[in-house]
Amino acid sequence: MIVGPRPLEEPSSGLAARLASAGVGDRVYRVAITLFAACVPLLLLLIAAEIARAAWPALRTFGFGFLTSSAWDPVNGAFGAAPALYGTIVSSIVALVIATPLAIGVAIYLSEFAPGWLRQPVSFLVDLLAAIPSVVYGLWGIFVLIPLLRTHVVPFLKDTLHLGATPLFSGPNYGPSMLAAGVILAIMILPYISAVAREVLLAVPRSQREAALALGATRWETIWGAVLPYARSGIIGGVILGLGRALGETMAVTMVIGNTHEISSSLLSPGYTMASLIANQFSEATGDLHLSALMAIGFVLFVLTLVVNALARWLVWRVARSA
Amino acid sequence: MPPTDASPAATRTALDVQDLSAWFGAQPAVRGVSVGFREREVAAIIGPSGCGKSTLLRCLNRMHETVPTARVEGRVLLFGTDVYADGISPIALRRHVGMVFQRPSPFPTMSIRDNVAAGLRVRGGGAPSRAETDRIVERALRRSALWDEVKDRLKASAIGLSGGQQQRLCIARALATEPAVLLLDEPTASLDPISTQKVEDLLYELRSEVTVVIVTHNMQQAARVSSSTAFMLAGELVEMAPTARLFTAPADARTEAYITGRFG
Ligand SMILES: Nc1ncnc2c1ncn2[C@@H]1O[C@H](COP(=O)(O)OP(=O)(O)OP(=O)(O)O)[C@@H](O)[C@H]1O
Ligand SMILES: [Mg+2]
């Protein structure tokens, strides 16, 4: 810029004043907005601190053994989180294993194959799955899913696929089971994963598809080789969102998992999750230690969710960076 | 579809476009164009923005029909075979007619090497061996004048390259499958002068091996790289002539108006 020294001198004081006055409004706004923003992490810390405080008596009594013990004996005051922790993780994994391919399949169909007029209604119906109240899923699980599993699916797995010999499907299936919980969870998290995956797939630039097509790729090769890789970090984000839902889901799981303090390798056996344990026992907790043990369960669940989310962040970041 | 006889075919027509029209929905973008592109020559297509250059180009490898509602009429003969005839697969066609787009479009999740090899893996007959792939990748990168810049980081991600390098990577990707025809849609539009120079040099060298059709907004570029030039206006072909003649003694008054900068 060719600006002589003169214009800089004279109007600069007026300009400086104007700049300063604009700065004041800006500063007030910034302070206010920072305060609001600070409330959210503060709330999180407060909740964490409160749960930790309430859980402290149990954590102090049982120490690290709380995580590994399978005891749950309110009468004698022995508590352990292992079965519920195990049940939470396993039922969520079962849900992910079932829901992820289905949800991605639905998303691929909707974003790549469905004719325009079908896309909206089908997306809407899939999204509607997320609007069904949890307790309705539970009822459906008791009256439809569990009988279906018992009379058709389990016999199929055992007799036709001969999976009865593997630990995962050994033993009898009386009704409520880890498998039932996993399937219910899968249906519940499917809309979340597929909604995210659908949006991410639709956001893949046309140039990527065209680049693949111009090389002589078929439609399927284009999706598999160009579209899905481009979208992968977003899809992983959707899967993690679904996992977060599955870890915390309470009502429907409580109704179909059997609520039994046991660790069994078989998915056909009943189990427990941390969320359903708290929901079931909180109102009738006897004694302070029992109450504190439930709080400790809540604390473990809280930490587990945090760890999963941190892992997810890291994974998405890794994938996005390697992209 | 690829050349069948081995006669010295300097004058053979690689692509013969006959009365080609193309629409987006009801709106015509190319109207009754007939034009021939000779084998092993660089032909340029020039014309004002929106005149249908890209659309014409995309009809040549049947990319136009991948746009919903798009429609084509007319014939495009590739070495005598109508690519729009029944039973011709656009997938197979595109393996013989490569295309490079205006904006570099490397696959971001793939390494440099895998980007170049991407077209090999989709070739029906199964991917070539690893050693064979390495050989093809090196050759394609050398032809696109990128080898020296990337030979030490073939495993690195393709998006670590500069825009000009990415575009030459896309050219290498298109060359790796040994197409008979290479279509380029404003390949240097987003590049700096040095990268542009490299791409132009490349086109100059390619002319003895493949048939090249290049769309460009840059008339100097057309003059530098092509041996014949077509001028389009409002979806129609105004004229096609040897480049030197089109720019010095155009037959049509509209061509003259355009190249002298009086409109467009
Ligand atoms: N996807 C599309 N849908 C609808 N109309 C389109 C589409 N793409 C292009 N058109 C229209 O078709 C006509 C020709 O477009 P085309 O892209 O072939 O022009 P062009 O000569 O390549 O222009 P430019 O030099 O700006 O790239 C234009 O009128 C344009 O508006
Ligand atoms: Mg164009």
Describe this structure in words.
The complex is a heterodimer of chains A (323) and B (264). In chain A, 76% of the residues lie in helices and 1% in strands. By secondary structure, chain A is an all-alpha fold. Chain A has one domain (79-322): MetI-like fold (Orthogonal Bundle). A two-stranded antiparallel ribbon of chain A has the order 1-2. In chain A, a hairpin with a 4-residue loop joins strand 1 (72-73) and strand 2 (78-79). Chain B contains 10 helices and 10 strands. Chain B has helices at residues 53-60, 90-96, 112-121, 130-143, 147-150, 163-176, 193-206, 219-225, 243-248, 253-259; strands at residues 13-24, 27-38, 42-46, 70-78, 81-82, 97-100, 181-185, 211-215, 228-233, 236-242. In chain B, helix 3 packs parallel to helix 6 (163-176). Chain A binds chain B through residues 116, 205, 207-218, 221, 225-226, 229-230, 232, 322-323, and chain B through 61, 63, 66, 68, 91-95, 98-99, 101, 103, 105-110, 118-119, 121-123, 157, 159, 170, 173-174, 177. Magnesium ion binds next to helix 1 of chain B.
Distance between the termini of chain B: 37 Å
Oligomer: heterodimer
Overall number of domains of chain A = 1
Query: In percent terms, what proportion of residues of chain A is strand?
Result: under 5%
- Ranges of chain A where pLDDT stays below 50 over 5 or more residues in a row are 1-9
Query: Biggest β-sheet of chain B, characterized?
Result: 6 strands, mixed
Secondary-structure element pattern of chain A, one letter each: HHHEEHHHHHHHHH
> How many strands in all of chain A?
2
